[in-house]
Amino acid sequence: MTGRLYGVGLGPGDPSLMTVRAVEAIAEADVVAYHSARHGRSIARSIAARHIRADHVEEPLVYPVTTETTDHPGGYRGAIDEFYAEAAARLAAHLDAGRTVAVLAEGDPLFYGSYMHMHKRLAHRYATEVIPGVTSVSAAAARLGTPLAEGEEVLTILPGTLPEEELAARLTGTDPAVVMKLGRTFTKVRRALEGSDRLDEAHYVERATMAGERTADLAEVDPESVPYFSLAVLPSRADAEPPARERGGVVVVGTGPAGPLWLTPESRGALAAADDLVGYTTYLDRVPVRPGQRRHGSDNRVEAERAEFALQLALQGRRVAVVSGGDPGVFAMATAVLEAAAHEEYAQVPVRVLPGVTAANAAAARAGAPLGHDYAAISLSDRLKPWEVIAERLRAAASADLALALYNPGSRSRTWQVGKARELLLEHRAPDTPVVVARDVGGAEERVRTVRLADLDPAEVDMRTILLVGSSQTRTARRGDGEQAVWTPRRYPGV
Q: How far is CA 81 from the centre of its chain?
């Protein structure tokens, strides 16, 4: 009979936070194993010390390398992998002899812990039980006395060893967050917090529940004083009061053509950080509701009034996100906000524009690559410019053999523009020119198909549709999965 393997979670450091089951597992064990550095001291053993008996066989698993360099031919990773294989073999010898082995692990055994490397090598061969423990994340939140995540908030846990840009992107696009493994990464993590505009939210917790515990505002911490067993906590924003500001700011956010899958991390972060959301109600409905955040919805035809309202809020010290569909700079809200912000009274209000996935790019991706060469984007709406201008631009783009992205092609009150545009284009394009008819891309009613220009039916087109008209070089092909691909070659004939 082989022995039984226990992965024993010891909690964050205070021995009184060990679970009853953890104590029982140690009592049942013949062998107690724990990791340590070369100096021989083991935090895991010190937590469980009162439960280790004289008749326990102790197996210190001493890392061959921690932060120093190594001359192992496989480098650091090679040395560590070899160590884990040897350690697993030592524990397997005890298990094969019928002994019960308890591997001690700080925090939780399967949460950024060393035990998991034993588990992956042994659990499929021996009867195994993993005993969960209180994590350092939970301990840090308890010591700070602040909710970690609430309601619909999403908690993100990040290792400080990630590249700085990756850290900043993830911190920008999430709600509450914890960054672990500080130590030598602290300076980089601090820069990432600054880059994501979240440094003011960040708390620092060192050795939570242990001797020498320390908490502080992260911005005030000396990098030279930071040990490995520390972390950064950005707690719940649910009850956070907006700080008093003399002047706020406006950020115009592109949500893409549909739901959250199309949001960039930067846009997601800006929406989360805003005190007020302003936008067309349909676009506001794409943004999750957050406690304490004000939402100001309006009709789609009041862009100028909406922009003015957002700037007025900013003058009151509010951080305002103006929500726009697609990319806010493409037939959308960025122009309206910047036009209003050019007035003297708003000259000191900061205005940023964040890009979003455009309707043209989204539709093109669904079809293949119809915009793979030069193309023009033209709105068929004559609400803000006369049809004569639209017609002139259509002729010019068509005669230049540009592929076309036609926005706002039709609505209940505009039913003739698509037919007229088709007639104008047929003066310069062959009847079988591919046209991608894309409706509600990314939405529940998405429909994308390709028709001949001569067969384009205006009755199938509404305001939720975008048309992509190919150039003389645009090609189509039926693929093996039955889908039709459309693309415009990057190389023009004669080159």
A: 31
- Closest Cα partner for 352 from 261, 269, 455, 256? 269
Q: How many C-beta neighbours within 10 Å does residue 113 have? A: 22
Strand 127-131 to 203-206 pairing: unpaired
Averaged pLDDT for residues 198-209: 95
332 sits in which H/E element = none
Runs of H (alpha helix) within 13-129: 20-28, 43-48, 75-96, 115-122
**Cβ count within 10 A of residue 10:** 31
Exposed/middle/buried for residue 427 (C-beta within 10 Å: 0-12, 13-18, 19+): exposed
Question: Is residue 458 within 8 Å of 419, Cβ to Cβ?
Answer: yes
Q: Is there a contact between 474 and 487 (Cβ–Cβ < 8 Å)?
A: yes
Residue labelled with tokens 């037919």: 419
Q: Which residues pair with 376 in a beta bridge?
A: 404
Return the residue matching tokens 């009162």.
Answer: 50
Q: Which of 246, 244, 248, 221 is nearest to 232 (CA)?
A: 221
Q: For the segment 409-443, what is each residue's pLDDT rounded down to a tens digit?
A: 987 777 799 999 999 999 999 999 999 999 999 98
For residues 253 and 328, the answer to whether their CB atoms sit within 8 Å is yes
Phi/psi of residue 211, each to 5°? -65, 140
Residue 18 structure tokens? 């060990």
> Which uninterrupted H or E stretch holds 409?
none
Residue bearing tokens 């697609």: 326
Answer whether 254's CB lies under 8 Å from 326's CB. yes
Q: Which residue has the higher pLDDT, 396 or 265?
A: 396
Contact 80, 65 (CB under 8 A): yes
pLDDT band, residue 300 (cuts 50/70/90):
confident
Residue 289 near residue 323, CB atoms below 8 Å: no
- The pair of three-digit structure tokens given for residue 124, joined into one six-digit string: 């499929």
- Residue type, position 299, single letter: D
Instruction: Report d(CA 91, CA 5) in Å as an integer.
Output: 9
Instruction: Compute and round to an integer the Cα radius of gyration of the chain.
Output: 30
Q: How many CA atoms lie within 13 A of 89 on its CB side?
A: 6
Distance CA 84, CA 390 (A): 69
Let me know if 108 is exposed, middle or buried by CB neighbors in 10 A (0-12, 13-18, 19+): buried
Note the pLDDT of residue 89: 97
Alpha-carbon distance of 226 to 189, in angstroms, equals 12
